């Protein structure tokens, strides 16, 4: 994620600590950007949910076909591939760059590209491919903030508007500005900062807070899975977290290493009207193997798993883990527009609950938090986001110490290795 020192619209003061009169004018633009980023996210999410209800409930009920029958899952995923393929083929700008080459660090796109990107994203969220909204929504919000912000304030810098839009969107996605603050702090770690850290965080944190609050007021998001209570950690919990987190990281790295090869295989088809429908067909076959819980971005499905941690066998959890990871890999490789964080949360949750089913001594909260941490470290390479998401899923302060320790061996497995993101020439980013 790009966060420059001039993360607020007006140019920063050269003084070691930015004066209040320098920071204060950034507040209103930051709050406006945060509110708008949240509204864009909510609008796309609401539209996708309405379309999902039609595609997966109204239409199959009218046809007398099972909502999640193998036939209907296959038909819907292929149809989603056709719909997205048409958008990528015909829409101005082809719905943005190849999603395999993008991450949370969003490019600034021409405004003519944004309608196609939003339409493709809504189709993906509604149709069932295993991708979340984060990457394309960040790209849309960044592009809007830069174009409108620079027109309204011509003397400001583009990087400031980029930082505000990214922070606001991350705050809206997770329903709290803490995630955005952690990501920004991580991005600033490699830069020479003028003045105090909170001077650089001031405007982005305001945008993140406005985005998070807008989302909370409108939709009341919650990442707490309400797993069985986790009390004081013991030695067994420490051992479990030290084993499960590296296993999750190793599993995630399998997808990372396969990513360039799978992407290259789909690229040989050359045309989006071949790549995306074929990708949809592969996803349909995977859904037939893993069941309907392995569809979509995964948050609602994660909540369903967590409602009954003992409702599936270790083998069933293992199947869902592998199938979801493969579905994420295929969807991200063949051209579907979307992000990888939320499907990775499902992969980690299924893995953690599978560890509990295999070894009952592994508490569900510990297994889930550690596994999600490991998978996210491999897929995103965002340490703070991985820790944050893993911790909020179980909503237990005592698990944070375990996660900090468990992150060490998991990080040793992923650091210095390829990322799940490609350069323009198809090679992996490192």
From TrEMBL:
Tell me how this protein sits in the membrane: Multi-pass membrane protein
Which keywords accompany this UniProt record?
Membrane, Transmembrane, Transmembrane helix
Q: Does the keyword Plastid apply?
A: no
Keyword Transmembrane recorded: yes
Which InterPro entries did the record assign?
Answer: Cl-channel_core, ClC, ClC-type_chloride_channel
Recorded GO CC terms: plasma membrane
* Compartments, as annotated in UniProt: Membrane
Q: Which residues cross the membrane?
A: 27-48, 68-88, 108-126, 161-185, 197-218, 238-262, 274-297, 317-336, 357-379, 385-414
Instruction: Check the record and name the Pfam families matching this protein.
Output: Voltage_CLC
One example of the protein's molecular function in GO is: chloride transmembrane transporter activity
What is the superkingdom listed in this entry's lineage?
Answer: Bacteria
NCBIfam families from the UniProt entry: PRK03655.1
Name this polypeptide is given: Ion-transport protein
């Amino acid at each position: 994620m790009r966060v420059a020192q001039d993360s607020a619209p007006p140019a920063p003061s050269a003084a070691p600590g930015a004066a209040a009169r320098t920071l204060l004018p950034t507040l209103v633009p930051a709050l406006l950007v945060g509110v708008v980023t949240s509204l864009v996210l909510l609008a796309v999410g609401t539209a996708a949910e309405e379309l999902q209800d039609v595609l997966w409930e109204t239409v199959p009920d009218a046809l007398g076909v099972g909502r999640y029958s193998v036939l209907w899952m296959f038909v819907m995923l292929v149809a989603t591939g056709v719909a997205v393929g048409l958008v990528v083929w015909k829409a101005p700008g082809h719905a943005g760059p190849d999603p395999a080459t993008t991450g949370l660090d969003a490019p600034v796109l021409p405004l003519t590209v944004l309608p196609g990107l939003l339409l493709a994203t809504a189709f993906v969220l509604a149709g069932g491919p295993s991708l979340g909204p984060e990457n394309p929504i960040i790209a849309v919000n960044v592009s809007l903030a830069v174009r409108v912000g620079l027109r309204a304030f011509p003397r400001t810098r583009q990087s400031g508007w980029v930082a505000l839009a990214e922070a606001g969107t991350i705050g809206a996605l997770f329903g709290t500005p803490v995630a955005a603050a952690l990501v920004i702090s991580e991005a600033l770690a490699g830069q020479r900062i003028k003045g105090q850290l909170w001077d650089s965080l001031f405007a982005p944190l305001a945008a993140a807070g406005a985005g998070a609050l807008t989302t909370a007021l409108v939709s009341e998001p919650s990442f707490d899975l309400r797993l069985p209570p986790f009390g004081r950690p013991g030695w067994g919990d420490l051992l479990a977290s030290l084993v499960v987190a590296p296993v999750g990281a190793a599993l995630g790295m399998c997808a990372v290493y396969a990513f360039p090869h799978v992407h290259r295989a789909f690229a040989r088809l050359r045309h989006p009207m071949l790549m995306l429908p074929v990708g949809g067909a592969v996803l349909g076959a995977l859904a037939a193997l893993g069941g309907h819980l392995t569809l979509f971005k995964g948050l609602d499905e994660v909540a369903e798993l967590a409602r009954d941690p003992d409702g599936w066998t270790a083998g069933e959890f293992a199947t869902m883990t592998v199938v979801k990871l493969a579905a994420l890999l295929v969807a991200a490789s063949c051209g579907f527009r979307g992000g990888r964080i939320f499907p990775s949360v499902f992969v980690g949750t299924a893995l953690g609950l599978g560890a509990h089913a295999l070894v009952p001594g592994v508490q569900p909260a510990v297994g889930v938090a550690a596994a999600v941490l490991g998978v996210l470290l491999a897929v995103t390479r965002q340490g703070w986001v991985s820790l944050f998401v893993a911790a909020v899923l179980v909503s237990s302060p005592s698990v944070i110490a375990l996660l900090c320790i468990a992150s060490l061996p998991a990080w040793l497995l992923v650091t210095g290795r390829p990322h799940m993101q490609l350069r323009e020439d198809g090679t992996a980013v490192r």
